[in-house]
Design goal:
CATH architecture of the largest domain: 2-Layer Sandwich
Distance between the termini: 57 Å
Largest sheet: 5 strands, parallel
CATH superfamily of the largest domain: Histidine kinase-like ATPase, C-terminal domain
Shape: elongated
Number of helices: 11
Radius of gyration: 37 Å
Strand content: 15-25%
CATH topology of the largest domain: Heat Shock Protein 90
Number of strands: 12
Order of helices and strands: EHEHEHEHEHHEHEEHEEHHEEH
Length: 385
């Protein structure tokens, strides 16, 4: 049995004559005397080709064509026109008719139109095949690329951690040496220095392990309703002694009237501490022209967001190249002294909150980091409304 063809014409004689020609050509022919009848047959039988008259009572051929294309766009439709219906035939082509033939219909003209239809069907099938093949190829290449990037990231992680651990081990060995010398010489000053070196490097190991855990684990923020200034105040009191030791001023500004919002205070504390520590490093050993080195921590209300945190410094700042790489995996502005994990973790936590982190910087003029977090209560209310 050949392809199914639905022949639609309100004249019974045309249906009989064309039906015989199509059957002789090997097609499985179905006929309909109106657009409405044709649509019912089409929905039940799903013919691949429809041959329909344009001018018919009730639902005409143009309307039938549009309905067929809406329901099954791949169906090929040949329009039958009279000699004076050229304008309608052109209109049918605009609605994606495959071809049109004019009455009286000769076998040769019908055969040419059907040949064109079969060519369209073949080309569509090939295009679909090529598209599916291309999509599969893109998927395979993407998976390979993801795997390659994952392996590269693992390699970079191992190399970065190995370097950081090597530096910490060097510090531990140095502390042990100074401590042992102090004990050997009964020198309390050496003992104190050695002990402080050991404590400092143990703290580095602890921070490195915590950074890795924070970056590796995939978790939802532990949202709590709290004063958005609280994490900033905690970081302020934590960083203040280190700033005082380094001769760097530290200020804090919290907007009046800030409403409690839903956030993960521990996660935001971690973000702000990372940014404040980076700001302190940027201010150390850098003397801004005309003003002493300083850091300002801010908690503000901005339109469209629940809260905005700012960590601003007037330290060394960054050039454009460094700025473009600042959030890349394991990139650090501190050379061998940093792992780059701090900003990666900060960005991850902010994204988990549905927020954004941005930066403004100028070399020799300092940097300002902005963390904007949504008001989750409003978001949840809008979703349930």
């Amino acid at each position: 049995m050949g392809d199914k063809v639905l022949l639609v014409d309100d004249e019974e004689g045309i249906r009989k004559v064309l039906g015989i020609s199509l059957a002789d050509a090997g097609y499985d022919v179905m006929t309909a005397g109106s657009g409405e009848e044709a649509l019912n047959i089409f929905r039940n039988e799903s013919p691949s080709i429809v041959l329909t008259d344009i001018k018919m009572p009730g639902m005409d051929g143009i309307v039938l064509l549009r309905k067929i294309k809406e329901e099954k766009p791949d169906t090929e439709v040949i329009m039958i026109t009279g000699h004076g219906d050229l304008e309608l035939a052109i209109k049918s082509l605009q609605f994606e008719a495959a071809d049109f033939v004019t009455k009286p219909i000769h076998d040769e003209a019908l055969a040419i139109a059907l040949k064109r239809v079969h060519e369209r069907i073949w080309m569509k099938a090939k295009l679909r095949e090529y598209t599916e093949g291309l999509e599969q190829l893109v998927l395979e290449k993407t998976q390979k690329l993801i795997e390659a990037e994952r392996l590269a990231a693992i390699g970079q992680t191992v190399a970065t951690l190995a370097h950081a651990i090597k530096n910490i081990i060097g510090g531990l060995k140095g502390g042990m040496y100074v401590l042992e010398k102090g004990m050997e010489l009964h020198n309390t000053q050496y003992q104190g220095q050695g002990w402080e070196m050991l404590k400092s490097n143990v703290e580095k190991i602890k921070n490195l392990a915590l950074d890795l855990l924070n970056y590796a684990k995939d978790r939802e923020p532990d949202y709590r309703l709290c004063d958005p200034c609280e994490p900033l105040q905690e970081v302020f009191h934590l960083v203040q002694p280190r700033c005082r030791e380094s001769g760097v001023s530290l200020e804090m500004e919290c907007s009046a009237g800030l409403q409690p919002i839903l956030l993960d205070p521990d996660g935001i504390h971690c973000c702000l501490l990372n940014l404040a520590s980076n700001a302190l490093d940027a201010c150390r050993d850098f003397e801004p022209a005309g003003t002493p080195p300083g850091i300002v921590l801010r908690c503000l209300h901005v339109h469209g967001w629940g809260v905005e945190y700012q960590v601003a410094d007037n330290g060394c700042g960054m050039d454009e190249e460094t700025r473009s790489r600042i959030f890349r995996t394991f990139f650090s502005t501190k050379g061998t002294k940093g792992t780059g994990l701090g900003l990666m973790i900060t960005q991850k936590i902010v994204r988990e909150h549905g927020g954004v982190i941005e930066m403004e910087t100028k070399q020799g003029k300092g940097s300002t980091f902005f963390i904007r977090l949504p008001d989750r209560r409003r978001l949840d209310a809008s979703r349930t409304a």
